[in-house]
Design a protein that fits this description.
This protein is mainly alpha-helical. The protein has eight helices and no strands. Helix 2 packs antiparallel against helix 4, helix 2 packs parallel to helix 5 and helix 2 runs antiparallel to helix 7.
């Protein structure tokens, strides 16, 4: 069995996660982080190349920031998710084909999930809970 303190922390995290587009923001941030980690050019080379090279670092950093903003400011999720999808698509041209497609797909899917999240939606009932209710009835 889990400790009571751990159980409370887990319940608090589950409650926090339920009030925001958690998976959308997380996937958008992970997409940006993945693209940043797959960059091969050093910062000296990027500065020498100019604006095109700088965009290779700027767009994934913006994706990471937008993912965190979706998580910590869910009231503005529509704007952040639309910009996140556009920036993710822009990484196709600037950042190793969008982090070899993985970062691009994570960013687009995360942005779409954040856009489609509804804040006032009633919580889903798990299958286990539905089975228990059917067994009682």
């Amino acid at each position: 069995m889990a400790e009571p303190g751990r159980r409370k922390a887990r319940a608090a995290f589950r409650d926090w996660r339920g009030r925001r587009p958690f998976w959308g923001g997380l996937l958008l941030a992970l997409g940006g982080a993945e693209i940043l980690l797959t960059e091969k050019a050093s910062l000296k080379v990027v500065m020498h190349i100019g604006m095109q090279g700088l965009a290779g670092y700027l767009l994934p950093t913006l994706m990471l920031l937008l993912g965190l903003l979706v998580l910590f400011n869910p009231a503005q999720r529509l704007f952040y998710s639309i910009v996140g999808v556009l920036v993710s698509l822009g990484s196709w041209l600037t950042s190793n084909l969008g982090g070899f497609f993985i970062g691009l797909l994570l960013g687009v899917v995360g942005g779409c999930l954040a856009f489609g999240w509804l804040p006032d939606q009633e919580a889903r009932v798990s299958r286990r809970q539905r089975r228990r209710e059917r067994a009682r009835a």
